[in-house]
Amino acid sequence: MLQKKPQDWPEPIVRVQSLSESCFDSIPDRYIKPPSDRPSSSAPFDQSNIPIIDLRSLFGTDAKAHAATLAQISEACRDWGFLQIVNHGVSPELMDKARETWREFFHLPMENKQQYANSPKTYEGYGSRLGVEKGAILDWSDYYFLHYLPLSLKDYNKWPALPPSCREVIDEYGREVVKLCERLMKVLSVNLGLEEEFLQNAFGGYDVGACLRVNFYPKCPRPELTLGLSPHSDPGGMTLLLPDSEVPGLQVRKLDTWITVKPAPHAFIVNIGDQIQILSNAKYKSVEHRVIVNSDKERLSLAFFYNPKSDIPIAPAKELVTPEQPALYQPMTFDEYRLFIRMMGPRGKSHVDSLKSPR
Ligand SMILES: O=C(O)CCC(=O)C(=O)O
């Protein structure tokens, strides 16, 4: 396994937003995917969607309704690894404000954004590529990455100072989303047949890792040749994605097809990450997803990653290891795991699969 921290990008960084403004009918070769990886334009229009689950009963006193919601979540986690949640307790106004604030950020003049240009040492700041492999084919997106937790990594100076409300909005949004993640961790623990606090404790308590990646997908003159984000599973614990309210783009792999998610109004899209796959001994699986782009509308999404504390070993829960289902993974800290991924960039599910115990 690779252990050296990458120091710098292997090539000069080009902002996809600038390319989008200067390319009218072609895109640079660096963004053209091999034919088998391109979004298939011949896919039939598809009605299917990931499950949409109303969480209202989790906040009420009706035990039967509560149990029914838990059962729906359990089925979605097992069958899809992805679900949409509505009536989740985060205010729709805050969700809209978070999206709008970040849209304003990406529309600031380039020099305002460049002062936050990131490096692969920590990825914090304004970025345009994942992975440091020289000559890699790149994705059609820019992003902003920041730490919300643990408090030791939270650094307002690394968050944008503009638009003026940005830091305050991120703080409020982070607070509400963390509360929701803590609630979901209890639901997942109970659904796995574990103590309610099991997953939270396995993540190292409440000062966990939480970070935000805001993805900006500019318009693309040749969307059939590229992807906004290559297929990957999320390396962390659980992700709460706030998708664009107008423009679809997220696709989730279901067997051999890619399902385009149709976001419900003010829903969060929740997905299981590799660390919960490992802790659940693969009862729940992280699922590959990717993003397609389009020629007439930009797209913005906020991915909030809720992760274990970075320096504790993560291994299958003993309660879920049996003679019939032995431990599928060897223990590894999230720091070690993430470093491996940050070197390589998005690679489907090959990262978590490579942790499988030799048998
Ligand atoms: O933009 C999206 O809809 C998905 C983003 C995503 O998968 C990610 O940030 O890991």
Brief account:
Its cofactor is Fe(2+); L-ascorbate. The chain is α+β, with helices and mostly antiparallel strands and 359 residues long. The chain contains nine helices and 14 strands.
CATH class: Mainly Beta
Structural class: alpha+beta
Low-confidence stretches: none
How many separate structural domains? 1
Q: CATH homologous superfamily name?
A: B-lactam Antibiotic, Isopenicillin N Synthase, Chain
By CATH, the topology is Jelly Rolls
- Total helix count? 9
Q: Characterize the biggest β-sheet.
A: 8 strands, mixed
Give a written overview of the molecule.
- GO terms for molecular function: dioxygenase activity; jasmonic acid hydrolase; L-ascorbic acid binding; metal ion binding.
- Keywords: Dioxygenase, Iron, Jasmonic acid signaling pathway, Metal-binding, Oxidoreductase, Plant defense, Vitamin C.
- Its cofactor is Fe(2+); L-ascorbate.
- Belongs to the iron/ascorbate-dependent oxidoreductase family.
- Residues 207-308 form the Fe2OG dioxygenase domain.
- By secondary structure, this protein is α+β, with helices and mostly antiparallel strands.
- The chain has one domain (16-353): Jelly Rolls (Sandwich).
- The chain contains nine helices and 14 strands.
- An eight-stranded mixed β-sheet has the order 1-2-10-7-12-5-4-3. A four-stranded antiparallel β-sheet has the order 6-11-8-9, with no helix packed on it. A two-stranded antiparallel sheet has the order 13-14.
- A hairpin with a 2-residue loop joins strand 8 (250-254) and strand 9 (257-260).
- Helix 3 (92-106) packs across helix 5.
- The protein is globular, with a radius of gyration of 20 Å.
- The two termini are 19 Å apart.
